[in-house]
Amino acid sequence: MKLTATEKKLLQIHVQSSLSEDCVEKDITSSLLNKIEVSAVIIFKEEGVLCGIDWVNEVFKKVNSKIKIKWLYKDGDFIKKNKTVCIIKGNNKSILTAERTALNFLQTLSGICSNIKKYQDQIKNKNIKLLYTRKIVPGWKYAIGNICSLMCCKPHRSNLQESILIKENHLKFIKNIEEYIRTAKKSKKLIIAEAKTLSELKAFNNLKLNRILLDNFTPSQVKKAIKLSKNTPIEVSGNITIKNIKNYTIKGVSFISVGALTKNIHALNISLLVR
After folding, report:
1. Is 267 exposed, middle or buried (0-12, 13-18, 19+ CB in 10 A)?
2. What number is the average pLDDT over the span 49-61?
3. Same domain, yes or no, for 165 and 201?
4. How would you classify the pairing of strands 129-132 and 48-49?
């Protein structure tokens, strides 16, 4: 994965912070060992999508720049159970010190990518785009956003300045929605309004918004909303799971945003073993 200078800096900061949290410079257990040169491998104990190579490389580099890693696959590859994905060579102390932090990144990022793939596989309509949301563990936004991009999964919105999203709580303070939208359009930003009912959808219809988000609508309600939407792009969200997402792949839906992609993380079972 090619990273810009800014992206590399963000990655380095994230990795250094994680290593500092683990007190890698004071690894008491490993420090008591005799130092010898060894070879180790990282193995997928369950199938999934490999992702996080740059983070693993950076972890080992910061612990000991002399460690060598040979990757047998690339980010985005689907890995079968019990497959070795890389070979690591270096001194035993450094490898063991870096092990947990490296695996934390690899298990988490590979788990998220694997989850995205499962959802994407359920969407047969190529006109519908799967989106991830801002429901992300603090401090992990850059890493997760980066690997979501690898999986061609775009953000619902990356941050608060990227677009205008009018939600239920905002509406409580907006006395005149038409006036608010006129002012909002001066920002030249994407404007999205969240509708919780068909009545709210109808109220948004004449505002010429960039998108209307249907929150917690049933599939049958979504179909009714599409008929009323007057060609405004429709996004559906709320309680959408791997079990029911197929029901929302309805003609007329442009986007499906799923918080579970980055919130309900299943870390893949991945191990490092010294040979």
Report:
1. middle
2. 97
3. yes
4. unpaired
